[in-house]
Amino acid sequence: MGFFERPDPRVAQSADPTPPAAVVAALKRHVLAFAICFVASAGAYAANVESGLHPTAVTRGSIVATGLEAPVTIERDGRDIPHIQAANEHDLYFAEGYVQGSDRLFQLDLSRRYAYGRLAEVFGAKALALDRVQRAVDINGIAERQLRAMAPHDRDAIAAFSEGVNAAAATQSLPVEFRMLLYQPAPWTPKDSLAVSIVVSLELADSWHDIFARDAVWRQRPRCFDTLFPLSDARYDVTIEGRRNVPPPAASPSDCGTAGVAVRPHPPAIGSNAWAAGSMRTVDGHALIANDPHLILTIPGIWYVVDIESPQIHAAGATIPGIPGILLGHNERLAWALTNAEMATTSVFEAGHLNRRSWVTERFRVRFSHDARSAYYRTSRDFSVPNEEGGAAIALVRWPIFAQRRSTIATVLALDRARDVNAALGIIANYRGSPQNFILADRSGKIAYHVAGLVPNDPAWGRYVHPARDLRMAFAPIPFAQLPRKDPARNVILASANNKTYTSAYPYRLSAQFEPPYRAYRIAELLHSRRRYDAAYFARMQLDTFSPIDLEIARDVVRFVRAHPQQGSREDVLAALGRWNGRYEPDSQAAALEHMLRVAVLGDAPEFSERLNELRGVDDPAALDLESDLDGWFSFAFEQRRVWREAGGMRIEHPLAPMNFAFLNGAWLPGAGDEYTIRLQEPGFAQSFRAVWDVGDWDRGGIAIPSGESGEPGSSHYTDLSHAWVAGRLQPLPFSRAAVRRSAADTLVLRPH
């Protein structure tokens, strides 16, 4: 208050002989008004969210859609999987975008926000750190360059797909997640599909975080690196044909132990299982192929199952929402399966001299807060990341896809049209994503294997950070013809599980470390246990819960404790471990016991290798430490007598569950299998689908997903497939016209405006 201002009447009122009473009365009035506004707002919010829980995608009747050239029929089977029939390719991809937009619109928007580093615009400051990391790669810039370089027919396909997504957003009810977060999604664009495909390659690539971690070991114990991070476990190493791959004996420094064993010093790698048999090895004379990718398990699932048909193309299987076509599956003459090749694609360098003109500033919009900015260093082939080794503030990363103008979507669309194995090999020779193991099978009964993708011939192979002077070097990709392969044949079997598939005669290292070979070894063991196979046998293999390495650990622990008697050891624990059959079955208490033992005593760090060597009988003074750890473990081993169903169980979580929206979560999956079994399942990570294709008899075999096709919580198809998933039932995916008609539950016709 000043000389030229009138006194505030509220101040005068508070100057009452009893001012505290007046103040309390005023506060009561304001609090009451605020409470009324809050309740009204909360009620409106709750009503809006509640209304979003009921509407679901329109799956029957007729809808007019602007952008179509002719009517399109979408028949949904009993699992809500769409079977699309279109008169031309434009309308086919339009309809595929439409069904994805109908069922998975929030997932689409969340995926592109993650790709572009724009999560903080919705989730606020807590997402800013993730956005900063993601923006370093400049996926937006890569997508723009790929879009400009795309062949016209591929650009037309993703443009039609985008039109379909936007048509669904315009005609369908807004999904509940948008209502909860109080925002509207922007229209989908062709660049967004490219961004999703690029982030898939990024997730499959060797992470620079892992390279920094390995570099620390390389600097501290360079002589021991190959012992601590061996390419494989020699006891279980198998080739692509499932044959034992016994490497020549290698000398190991005396202070590092011997007999390297696979180690995972980082979170679970994105991997998969895949195997195949040529027609001469099957009961019905058709080639067989199986695939189950291992990814983060969320609801809605990362895969969208669909069947697409036009006069030019007919393909079925699974794709990642946002990507048109069929990513994994089959067409009328060919089936294909992929596993992550686990090969080094990323090179990290000390920064050295930096050109001032190569710095860019990125702006981040942050909900409920001020905008933020971060500076990044980018050249035509390198980008900056924080230096996790200390010293200079940044390091430079060279990831070949950063400078790549060819989109992986072009490979997907071409593979969907391939007529046989040889044509497919020609197509994947031009694949420019993170390296993948491709297993192919066609109607002639031939199967083949080839690694495809960009594998720079970098002598570091992801083991260490390059000095700055190496920035002058160019690491050319290994030619396609020199990557590991197996030529087409009818009388062979193939098995891939992210393991090292080549022999010691192969000239390149390719990786800092492949995934442990235990799943591949077990696949090979089951394939070699009989001469011929059918689709049912392949499906049973996908449910196998036997872990050879865990059984070895259980037996070795028993033997070790017997040889080194300990005060705290308990006979009942040793007896349970000794009787265990190595299977991670739901009702097994010994499985839960052994898993707890492995994690607590051996861990998942480089020490795992040393500890396992001790158990295997290697004479090492550190065995005294192992005795001490085992002694401590025995003291609480049977305090929690849980079976594996409980100890290994997991909830399928929605991405918004951490925000107290747990009601969006999916089913509880009982423990069945672990991280080293074919039926892979570990916390938050599992088989993301299971598929078996009887090549040529497409209505047999099938595909299963762990939740449901719909991403809408109000849909009856949100979690309807979880029961069959837990039971291990593989359900056919109708492909022939007759099978699709028999299975049709709903029919929707899209008509041009």
Task: Jot down its keywords.
disordered N terminus; eleven-stranded mixed beta sheet; 753 residues; 25 strands; Glutamine Phosphoribosylpyrophosphate, subunit 1, domain 1; alpha+beta; globular; seven-stranded antiparallel beta sheet; 23 helices
Would you give an account of this structure?
The chain is an alpha+beta fold. Among the domains are: 17-52; 218-302 and 322-344 and 409-466 and 476-535, Aminohydrolase, N-terminal nucleophile (Ntn) domain (Glutamine Phosphoribosylpyrophosphate, subunit 1, domain 1), CATH 3.60.20.10; 548-647, no CATH class. Helix content is 35%, strand content 17%. The strands form 5 sheets. An 11-stranded mixed beta sheet has the order 1-25-2-3-6-7-8-9-15-16-17. Strands 4, 5, 18, 21, 22, 23 and 24 form a 7-stranded antiparallel beta sheet that branches. The chain has a 3-stranded antiparallel beta sheet with strand order 10-14-13, covered by helices on one side. A hairpin with a 2-residue loop joins strand 8 (328-331) and strand 9 (334-340). Helix 3 packs across helix 7 (152-171), helix 3 (89-116) packs across helix 9 and helix 16 (548-563) packs antiparallel against helix 17. It is globular and about 80 Å long. It starts with 8 loop residues before the first helix and ends with a strand. The model is unreliable at 1-40 and 258-266 (pLDDT under 50).
